[in-house]
Amino acid sequence: MALNWFKKKKDKTDDSESPAAPETPSATASTGSEAGNSPAADSESPQPAPPAGEADNDSADQAIEAGDAASIPEQAASANGKSGTGLFARLKSGLSKTRQILTTDIDELFLGKKLVDDEMLEDLEERLITSDMGVQTTLAIMEKISARRSRIAGAAALKTALKEEILAYFEALPEPAPEAATRPHVVMVVGVNGVGKTTTIGKLAAHEARKGKKVLIAAADTFRAAAIEQIAIWAERAGADIVRHKDNADPAAVAYDGIDAAISRGTDIVFVDTAGRLHTKVNLMEEIKKIQRTVAKRLPGAPHEVLLVLDATTGQNALSQAKMFNEALGVTGLALTKLDGTARGGIVVSICSSLNIPLKYIGVGESVDDLQEFDAQQFVEALF
């Protein structure tokens, strides 16, 4: 059936596969530094800003997150508990485009029919692939649905069967790593250009501060124009401390000083921001490995989490990103953003079925509360 679907769709291309463009290093210096460059950061010498042809490009991230920064006062109000919409309602609203494919079309499949037939199975397969569940995941789900087709009568029964099969993928995932017994708990946040990484850190900082925790952000994205200023705004709104150096400073040195400051201040949790980087650029991946080594040098056992931020709108390209970052850094958790801007909510199922990595957070909107801890049961219910 998948072959028939590809024949029908052969003229269509997936624009989500196009790689991000390289970033131009910032030439503007930051005004102030809370900590100096530490010589103990790493035995390797600090690396200068990468050449224009190899640098990261976070222009899309910058444009999107600049809008986020402008609306931070409203988001901060939400962080203080002034939210008028329930979490499940926001999740359901954010997944409305995917739900339209999976629910409306499934209802239409049963028009004039009572039982599941071969034509209906083929149409259902097409809809699952369209929602970006991936070919292999879709085929596996369809095999199980086909085996129980004689017991499926009506659209409601088919939706129930799909929920059960999808939920099984999430239930097979390992539990997220517990917080470190010692303080601070260090979370290193990584991802390619434009995924909303800085915004995600800001929202997570607000969530943790709301719980009464003392939060610090290490602004180790020193190459992207205005990145330090942007994360500083988020830190201020969240009530978090920040350690920053000047633009183009060695990111590993910033991370080292951030951990050092957190230890001395009795901080509960540290978020280490890193420059967005193309996962296919070996030299840039080596730089982020250096940050990981440096953090471990200052605090053995850290980082306790490596959180990879993925953009749901990139579809199956997000899966290849996850595989390469996991091979390089040992990713411990995922955050999937921008689910409200795509009909490809099935990518959540595809990623979880392909990788043995816990999905910790999903983003279904721009406000602080629209970044939610992933709840598999609620997510599946919101899909249908």
UniProtKB/TrEMBL annotation:
Composition skew (Low complexity), residue ranges: 18-36
Chain positions recorded as GTP binding sites: 191-198, 273-277, 337-340
Region (Disordered) location: 1-59
Keyword terms, alphabetized: Cell membrane, Cytoplasm, GTP-binding, Hydrolase, Membrane, Nucleotide-binding, Receptor
SRP54-type proteins GTP-binding domain boundaries: 358-371
EC number: 3.6.5.4
InterPro entries, A to Z: AAA+_ATPase, P-loop_NTPase, Signal_recog_particl_SRP54_hlx, SR_rcpt_FtsY, SRP/SRP_N, SRP54_GTPase_dom, SRP54_N_sf
A biological-process GO annotation: SRP-dependent cotranslational protein targeting to membrane
Membrane-topology annotation of the record: Peripheral membrane protein
Superkingdom, taxonomy of origin: Bacteria
Enzyme category, top tier: hydrolase
Record PROSITE patterns: SRP54
Compartments, record wording: Cell membrane; Cytoplasm
GO cellular component, one term: plasma membrane
Subunit field text: Part of the signal recognition particle protein translocation system, which is composed of SRP and FtsY.
Role of this protein: Involved in targeting and insertion of nascent membrane proteins into the cytoplasmic membrane. Acts as a receptor for the complex formed by the signal recognition particle (SRP) and the ribosome-nascent chain (RNC).
Record protein name field: Signal recognition particle receptor FtsY
Gene: ftsY
